[in-house]
């Protein structure tokens, strides 16, 4: 075995074993980094054009194996997906051993490893990582990997498998999976046979767990009208089809649309949660599928970790008949429902809600009148962490990413409570089953879909009644292409700019001219742009506010 120069005593001291440098170097040459390309660990991992990602997948597989070793050989996950991005994009998201996102302190190592220009530089980074986390190389590594439906996935999975093979890791090839399914599998594997066992660690086990809980939750409650689901022509179609094997149509009638997994170019094209949320409109041409006024509809994104609902109110020919029920509305629905159940069950639960600056002002006002509300920067990892501070942490981004976390204390209370009335007992059973229908590891379109269905069923509400919880303030998002998005830095959970110097004061001045207005600017973590969000009390003023703030951003970038 050849070892590069510079391998120092620090590594040897941590283990009697060594990194298999020679093997790693072979793969390093087989999966060359595109010259000049710069990779960056973004909000959820590395995401860019799929055909440039082989070297990144190979290198992150090696880091993934080290992560598993650093966690005493617990299983970690690697998901190959680019979520709602266009089909030619792809990406890789590492998943930590409890099914949550990778520890953020590892992110800079991932960025550096993917940008290393030669094997020596790469080995140097591995060496630093091993030293910083005192990784015992003798510990075996265990990694599960999966992918969504993109055409570039098989090629990238090969690179992942090569990196893991070079490290001698034990592997599980999970194949086609939704992102939340892979999170579930990681957590279920690592807790199997323990008191915390999360569920059977198979895809089948995932469907059974969710479906069993759902069927118990809706038992005896009359079924409502059918639900139309836009699967974004992605892996969500596969999961939806499979869960229907466990949920008979008498319990939930589903009409699955945009299920063309194998059709080239179809993924997220004119459909999916992002298309619907950003455009505030129906998936393209869905009218041709016979969608009618009042129909309850929802859209998944490309890896099925996001969901938004919507319906047509009044005359479908009118543009404003489209009504979006986004992550904010799901949060309001879930928060109220869980708070009520806890009260009925006679147990004290500190229910709290976590949002980002993108939450509509009306939703924040609505929630703040009921529960404590926290605002975090964008990205599930931030919301998830904040939600862990509550007994029950409801977290949703407006774009439909989110879930509800029950803390270990809350779970204990639920399992030990002794209800004194039949009504309290019913509420308690409902709460216990809710825990099982909700994916506790990450936001999950399938699980969130079932949660919403349970609540609407229980309340016997249609979309219009749900929508009536509060009226959204008119809002809009714009993208500004700037010279250097890194020049835009923020504070206060991204609500205020720190740099470019002086820009925030100018934005404040503009916003003050509009009634009940709010606007903020932040650099995107997934695209090369700066995003402008604007919200006003008066719909007629919205475009003017958004455009004026975007203009200030452009001027600051050009200055
Ligand atoms: C990623 C995040 C999402 C966030 C979005 C923001 C996860 C699983 N996904 O898709 O939560 O809303 O990025 O994108 O964390 P942006 O930084 O481009 O605005
Ligand atoms: Mg996604």
Automatic annotation (TrEMBL):
Mg(2+) binds at residues 83, 301, 303, 305. Pathway: Nucleotide-sugar biosynthesis; UDP-N-acetyl-alpha-D-glucosamine biosynthesis; N-acetyl-alpha-D-glucosamine 1-phosphate from alpha-D-glucosamine 6-phosphate (route I): step 2/2. It is an enzyme of class 5 (isomerase). Its EC number is 5.4.2.3. Residues 203-308, 326-461 form the Phosphoacetylglucosamine mutase AMG1 domain. The keyword Magnesium applies. One of its GO terms (biological process) is carbohydrate metabolic process. Keywords: Isomerase, Magnesium, Metal-binding, Phosphoprotein. Substrate binds at residues 397-399, 522-526, 531. It comes from the Eukaryota. Belongs to the phosphohexose mutase family. This is Phosphoacetylglucosamine mutase.
């Amino acid at each position: 075995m050849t070892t590069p120069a510079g391998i120092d005593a620090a590594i040897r001291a941590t283990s009697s074993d060594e990194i298999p440098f020679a093997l790693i170097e072979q793969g390093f040459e087989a999966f060359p980094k595109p010259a000049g390309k710069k990779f960056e660990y973004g909000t959820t991992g590395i995401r860019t054009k799929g055909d440039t990602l082989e070297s990144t997948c190979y290198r992150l597989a090696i880091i993934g194996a080290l992560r598993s070793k650093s966690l005493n050989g617990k299983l970690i996950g690697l998901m190959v997906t680019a979520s709602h991005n266009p089909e030619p994009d792809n990406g890789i998201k590492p998943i930590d051993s409890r099914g949550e996102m990778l520890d953020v302190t590892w992110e800079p190592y991932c960025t550096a490893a993917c940008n290393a220009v030669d094997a020596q530089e790469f080995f140097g980074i591995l060496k630093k990582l091993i030293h910083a986390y005192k990784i015992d190389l003798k510990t075996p590594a265990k990694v599960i990997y999966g992918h969504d439906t993109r055409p570039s996935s098989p090629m990238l999975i090969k690179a992942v498998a090569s990196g893991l093979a070079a490290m001698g890791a034990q592997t599980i090839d999970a194949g086609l999976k939704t992102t939340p399914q892979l999170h579930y599998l990681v957590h279920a594997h690592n807790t199997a046979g323990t008191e915390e066992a999360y569920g059977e660690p198979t895809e089948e086990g995932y469907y059974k767990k969710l479906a069993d809980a759902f069927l118990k939750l809706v038992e005896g409650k009359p079924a409502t009208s059918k639900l139309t689901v836009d699967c974004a022509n992605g892996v969500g179609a596969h999961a939806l089809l499979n869960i229907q094997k466990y949920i008979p149509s008498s319990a939930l009638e589903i009409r699955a649309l945009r299920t063309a997994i194998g059709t080239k170019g179809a993924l997220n094209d004119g459909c999916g949660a992002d298309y619907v949320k950003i455009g505030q409109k129906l998936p393209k041409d869905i009218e041709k599928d016979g969608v009618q006024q009042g129909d309850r509809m929802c859209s998944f994104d490309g890896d099925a970790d996001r969901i938004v609902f919507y319906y047509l109110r009044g005359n479908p020919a009118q543009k404003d008949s489209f009504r979006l029920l986004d992550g904010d509305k799901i949060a309001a629905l879930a928060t109220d429902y869980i708070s009520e159940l806890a009260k009925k069950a006679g147990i004290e639960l500190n229910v709290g809600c976590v949002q980002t600056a993108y939450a509509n002002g009306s939703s924040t006002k609505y929630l703040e009148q009921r529960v404590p509300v926290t605002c975090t920067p964008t990205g599930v990892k931030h919301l998830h962490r904040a939600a862990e501070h509550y007994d029950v942490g409801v977290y949703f981004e407006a774009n439909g990413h989110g879930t509800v976390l029950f803390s270990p204390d809350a779970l204990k209370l639920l399992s030990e409570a002794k209800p004194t009335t039949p009504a309290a007992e019913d509420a308690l059973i409902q709460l216990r089953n809710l825990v099982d229908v909700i994916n506790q590891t990450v936001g999950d379109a399938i699980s969130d879909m079932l949660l919403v269905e349970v609540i609407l069923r229980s309340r016997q509400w249609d979309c219009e009644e749900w929508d009536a919880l509060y009226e959204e303030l008119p809002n809009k998002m714009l993208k500004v292409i700037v010279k250097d998005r890194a020049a835009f830095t923020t504070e206060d959970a991204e609500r205020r700019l720190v740099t470019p110097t002086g820009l925030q004061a100018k934005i404040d001045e503009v916003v003050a001219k509009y009634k009940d207005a709010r606007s903020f600017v932040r650099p995107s973590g997934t695209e090369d742009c700066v995003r402008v969000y604007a919200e006003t009390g008066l719909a007629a003023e919205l475009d003017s506010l958004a455009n004026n703030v975007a203009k200030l951003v452009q001027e600051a970038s050009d200055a």
